[in-house]
């Protein structure tokens, strides 16, 4: 079971912002999606998750055209954390997290819903009490809360078929401090280890190298490279895609990527 695209293109204002992209998301794999600004990363996320329909090509979930599936069915198979989640109402933290349980109405018991909400809030390490208002949270706390909401959505009740789920994260570490960033990525890694197919747009190749199984590099709306993280994340390839010289250093036995200042010459 997988979610795959077949030569999808998305046209906006006469320009292909996605151009003949064929990819596949597999259960129990963490796929990091990288590329410069405007490469098509969020467009690919929106198209694979069903938010957009491709102008050319098709997207399939378990060999069924994605856009033929009812919204409720799709919501039970995939969860999405967009780049900038928006919520303006003064809901409590618990109420926001419970939004993620909406697709399971009629299938989940009250006890399962309550457990899913509590487990999700615990997993993201949100320190504010459940009755605290969303509008009073910091940017990082709001990001953690939206992550809890989609974790609650992915918690399948016993009455539902136990099918693989797909998690889409669009720059999930936005607004997070170092601890929150690692919490988020470790959660995504744990979900992949437990069978979820994870799609995560990341900017730091070090995060991709540490957490991802696969990496897709996009440039100008096309798939520039894809494959296992260790084979895709090379300094020549990253330098070419991002247009800046990338170098590596070794820290505690691990290679660390960094952008090198081309104007800097080592002192002799």
Strand segment tally: 13
Strand order of the largest sheet: 7-8-9-4-10-11
Amount of helix: 25-40%
Low-confidence stretches: none
- What is the tally of helical segments? 9
CATH topology name, in short, is: Rossmann fold
- CATH architecture verdict: 3-Layer(aba) Sandwich
Structurally, the number of domains stands at 1
Q: Specify the CATH homologous superfamily.
A: P-loop containing nucleotide triphosphate hydrolases
What is the topology?
Layout: E1 3-12, E2 15-21, E3 24-25, E4 30-34, H1 41-48, E5 56-61, E6 64-65, H2 71-75, E7 78-81, H3 93-99, H4 110-124, H5 139-154, E8 166-170, H6 178-193, E9 197-201, H7 205-211, E10 214-219, E11 222-228, H8 229-232, H9 235-242, E12 246-251, E13 254-259
Parallel strand pairs: 4-9, 4-10, 7-8, 8-9
Antiparallel strand pairs: 1-2, 1-3, 1-5, 5-6, 10-11, 12-13
Helix pairs in contact: 3-5, 4-5
What labels describe this entry?
alpha/beta; globular; 268 residues; 9 helices; Rossmann fold; five-stranded antiparallel beta sheet; 13 strands; six-stranded mixed beta sheet
